[in-house]
Amino acid sequence: MSAHFIDGELQSLKDAVAMALEFAQGLGVSAAEVAISKQQGLSVSSRLQEVETVEFNKDGALGISVYRDGCKGNSSTSDLSAAAIREAVKAADSIARYTSEDPASGLAEKALMATEFPDLQLYHPRHTTPDELAQLAIAAEAAALGRDKRITNSDGASVNAHNSVRVYGNSHGFLQGDCSSRYSLSCVVIGSDDNGDMQRDYDYTVARQFDEMLAADKVGISAADKTLSRLGGRKLATGNLPVLFAADVATGLLGHLVSAISGSTLYRKSSFLLDALGQPIFPEWFTIHEQPKLLGGFASANYDSEGVATRDRYIVEQGILQSYLLTSYSARKLGMQNTGHAGGIYNWTVTDSGKSFQELVRSMDKGLIVTEVMGQGVNMVTGDYSRGAAGFYVEKGEICYPVEEITIAGNLREMFRNIQAVANDRELRSSIRTGAILLDNMKIAGS
């Protein structure tokens, strides 16, 4: 795969966006914005140490929104010729003429546009070949299958190398683009024991730079060890226990916070954290720091998808909710200030309690480590939380046996307030950088 295709296309994509904006201006619209993204990647998967698929992709499209007297029209095209772009602009304008006026629609304020664009070190192109990626996938599977005779099958390994470019421009005169790279390797295996129990688990590595991925054999061994640890799973008796969410599951727990404080949820009045701004929702020691300019971060950006400058901020400070997550539209609906979160969040770093995951396990008298959650049992209006779970039962600080086919339940508002500790070994493969989260008490429904 050519590593530098993005470099040559960035300027041509900027030219296409500028052309679309010029066409829109010629139609006399009130405002316009244009975004285009393009990806190119190579993916190779193997199963039982044989190459199964090799896939090359290169795709992208230009999307345009025009605003005419408070009315909005959208259209898109994957054809970037001048004629196709002109037709897309005309189509968006035609739609705008028939849509209803919405006072909250429109571009973000010009004063909020980003003006500084430091290199965030997101783009590390590298030439890769199908053979090279296949060798990594096969090596991961080989390490997993050779780990223990109880690893009896493989669901495969996959390696991906992707580069992408995005360009955004609007009629404020904003026109910027940036490139990024992403490399990943995953492995999934199946294990069984003498009692006929079968379990499946996986592990993965992801990096901006190819050479910073974890070694393939380590990924395979980790996938095998996680699978083996689940063999012989039991149900727990129904009751109440402290629960320790493993770091990669804890990111999902805090993902519910993202949903609850997002503008679209708030203006629809469908959040359990409605009117919680400035209120304590976590323990006093708990802080979430957002860092959009983190070098090489998986969620780093100089500007959001509306061109609004991103900035460091505390989402939660000393337990108190300091910021909602607002786009230009949701900010207007709520009568508040745009926070530059069109497109998502930016590298949340959660404070820790100074202890490792293992130390938190040793601190538990009786408890449950949750390593997997299933189902969609989360009510964002009330905060009620009920999900299937699997993990490990702990007694006197030691893992006793794996647990499966149970349900954990609580209320997110209470769960957030009753966080006891956060481990200092953070999950760094996510936009939410947190360690394992210990809750003092949850309902467990089992046998």
UniProtKB/TrEMBL annotation:
Family label: Belongs to the peptidase U62 family.
Gene3D superfamilies for the chain: PmbA/TldD superfamily (3.30.2290.10)
EC nos: 3.4.24.-
Residues in Metalloprotease TldD/E N-terminal domain copies: 32-96
A Pfam family the protein falls into: PmbA_TldD_1st
Broadest EC class assigned to this enzyme: hydrolase
GN (gene name): pmbA
InterPro entries in alphabetical order: Metalloprtase-TldD/E_C, Metalloprtase-TldD/E_cen_dom, Metalloprtase-TldD/E_N, PmbA, TldD/PmbA_N, TldD/PmbA_sf
Family matches, as NCBIfam families: PRK11040.1
Name listed for the protein in its UniProt record: Metalloprotease PmbA
Residue ranges of domain Metalloprotease TldD/E C-terminal in the record: 238-446
Keywords for this protein: Hydrolase, Metalloprotease, Protease
Signal peptide span: none
GO molecular function: metallopeptidase activity
Metalloprotease TldD/E central domain span: 123-231
